[in-house]
Amino acid sequence: MNIRDTQRQAVIEQLAGHLLEHGLARTSLRQLAAAAGVSDRMLLYYFADKAEVLAAVMARVAGELSTRLAEAIPDGSALRPAELVRSAAAFTTGPDMRRFMRLWVEVVAAAARGEPPFPGIVAQIMAGFRAWVDARLELPAGADREAISAAVIAVIDGLALVDICSEDALAPRMAGALSILLSD
Q1: What is the pTM of this model?
Q2: Residues 79-95: pLDDT tens digits?
Q3: 70: part of which helix (H) or strand (E)?
Q4: Calpha distance 102→135 (Å, rounded)
Q5: Other C-beta atoms lying within 10 Å of the C-beta of residue 85
């Protein structure tokens, strides 16, 4: 890895922390450069444009989230949908994960509004999470894996949304209730 690539990775690390702390509120090119401790011109030396910056940083954040999820639910796990929802929900609604889920909700909202580059970022991250869920599902032959994986993600994202929007501890209780409903 050359010096430019090393410095680019350091910028990505700085900006991943910045987005997790501040969300999308401070993402002008100038604000991103300041958060990374570089000039606007230097940021554009490392990246073609703001879209590439955000895509690289969100890929880094998604990678960190995937690593944490894999630690909580390791590769090779084969769980029924209800158990996967229970395990993933317990993890994603924890206090350490709230900043990841808040950023994810913001990015999804920006994609829903059609704000570049977020639709493409969301599509890539969702494909990765669908593959992650699919690899951990124990399903009967003939089950629609793609639809069930997407449904598991929808439930987990919904729980995270409730967790973000609630002052109380409703999300973990809701995860337990959903798991009961799904196992019937």
Answers
A1: 0.89
A2: 999 889 888 888 888 88
A3: helix 50-72
A4: 25
A5: 25
Residue reference for tokens 């895509």: 55
For the record, the structure tokens of 97 come out as 């994960």
Domains recognised in the chain with CATH numbers: 3-183 (1.10.357.10)
Rounded Cα gap, residues 123 and 129, in angstroms: 10
Residues 6+ apart with CB under 8 A from 98: 163, 164
Look up residue 137 and give its DSSP letter: B
Contact 117, 55 (CB under 8 A): yes
- Summarised one tens digit per residue, pLDDT across range 109-164 is 999 999 999 999 999 999 999 999 999 999 999 999 999 999 999 988 988 888 88
How many residues does this entry show for the chain?
184
